[in-house]
């Protein structure tokens, strides 16, 4: 026996018990055919659950002194789902923040010509390095490629690394050190020399998309039944972030909670199952 397989024995079957484990996949729906394009594994999901909301019309008879229910009509049924993800991939972040993932050109590769880092320096503050035209951040820089001069409009003075400023090379940030040559209010100019070895960067741009329809597939594996596998398909869903995205925690991993509702997919090939299908089989 297995989850979702008919029990015709007339006796209890402990193989039908389920200890929840499995993998969630989603696929965008083709805008022409309405069918899945390709499925992406969402990574480790510590929870995934389904629920059904039933709306009923309850009719009561008024023929006697005490009104009694004489008919209950189900007028709608809705399949809802919720799940939690733990893998902060760019694609999962885009799913959570209703955005898109793009590969961004790192300005550190081509370098940045002289520009005003700040027109009025504040000691003890950080300044980001970025392309002044595109706004793209320079990351994974080489500190030796950075040159900072003070008073570029008069007699420019070259500042000294680790005496006047420090560099967070990974995140492309400059820290103005108190006690150095730089005086509060100074104008500072920065040049970043081209570095072909700088990393390509990835950006997740939030709140750039809405209302994307997906097909969702859950492939369960049941350790209570010798790791028998089964599949739950939701043929059209919209996925929404639903909860906190905690980036600081004393003990727990950062998690991304989601909820959504199953929709009917009129394009689904199986005309008998346009919303949801559960598939399983008996191992032989």
Folded structure, characterized:
With 284 residues, the chain is mainly β. The chain is built from two helices and 17 strands. It has helices spanning 90-96, 107-110; strands at 22-28, 40-41, 47-61, 68-85, 100-104, 112-118, 126-128, 146-150, 157-158, 165-168, 173-176, 188-192, 201-205, 214-222, 228-241, 256-262, 276-279. Strands 1, 2, 3, 4, 14, 15, 16 and 17 form an eight-stranded antiparallel β-sheet that branches. A four-stranded antiparallel β-sheet has the order 6-12-8-9. A hairpin with a 6-residue loop joins strand 3 and strand 4 (68-85). The chain starts with 21 loop residues before the first strand and ends in a 5-residue tail after the last strand. The model has no long low-confidence stretch (mean pLDDT 95).
How much of the sequence lies in strands comes to 35-45%
Give the overall form. Answer: elongated
Unreliably modeled segments:
none
Question: What gyration radius follows from the Cα positions, in whole Å?
Answer: 29 Å
Number of strands: 17
Distance between the termini: 10 Å
Which percent range fits the helix content?
Answer: under 10%
Mean pLDDT: 95
The SSE order reads: EEEEHEHEEEEEEEEEEEE
Contiguous helical run count: 2
By helix and strand content, what is the structural category? mainly beta
Q: Please give the largest β-sheet.
A: 8 strands, antiparallel
Short description:
With 284 residues, the protein is mostly beta strands. It has helices at residues 90-96, 107-110, and strands spanning 22-28, 40-41, 47-61, 68-85, 100-104, 112-118, 126-128, 146-150, 157-158, 165-168, 173-176, 188-192, 201-205, 214-222, 228-241, 256-262, 276-279. β10 and β11 form a beta hairpin.
């Amino acid at each position: 026996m297995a989850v979702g397989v008919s029990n015709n024995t007339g006796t209890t079957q402990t193989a039908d018990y389920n200890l929840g484990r499995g993998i969630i996949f989603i696929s965008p729906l083709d805008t022409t055919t309405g069918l899945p394009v390709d499925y992406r594994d969402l990574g480790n999901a510590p929870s995934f659950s389904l629920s059904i909301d039933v709306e009923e019309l309850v009719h009561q008879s008024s023929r006697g002194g005490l009104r009694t229910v004489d008919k209950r009509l189900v007028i709608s049924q809705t399949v809802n789902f919720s799940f939690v993800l733990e893998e902060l991939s760019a694609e999962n972040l885009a799913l959570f923040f209703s955005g898109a993932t793009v590969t961004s050109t790192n300005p550190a590769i081509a370098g940045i010509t002289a520009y005003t880092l700040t027109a009025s320096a504040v000691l003890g503050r950080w300044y980001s390095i970025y392309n002044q035209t595109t706004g793209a951040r320079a990351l994974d820089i080489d500190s030796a490629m950075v040159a900072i001069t003070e008073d570029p409009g008069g007699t420019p003075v070259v500042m000294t690394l680790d005496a006047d400023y420090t560099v967070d090379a990974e995140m492309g940030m400059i820290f103005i050190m108190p006690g150095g040559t730089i005086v509060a209010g100074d104008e500072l100019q920065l040049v970043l020399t081209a570095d072909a070895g700088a990393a390509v960067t990835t950006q997740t741009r939030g709140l750039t998309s809405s209302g994307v329809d997906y097909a969702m597939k859950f492939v369960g594996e049941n350790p209570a039944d010798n790791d028998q596998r089964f599949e739950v398909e939701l043929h059209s869903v919209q996925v929404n972030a639903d909860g906190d995205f905690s980036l600081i925690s004393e003990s727990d991993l950062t998690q991304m909670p989601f909820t959504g509702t199953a929709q009917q997919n009129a394009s689904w090939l199986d005309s008998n199952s346009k919303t949801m299908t559960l598939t399983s089989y008996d191992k032989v």
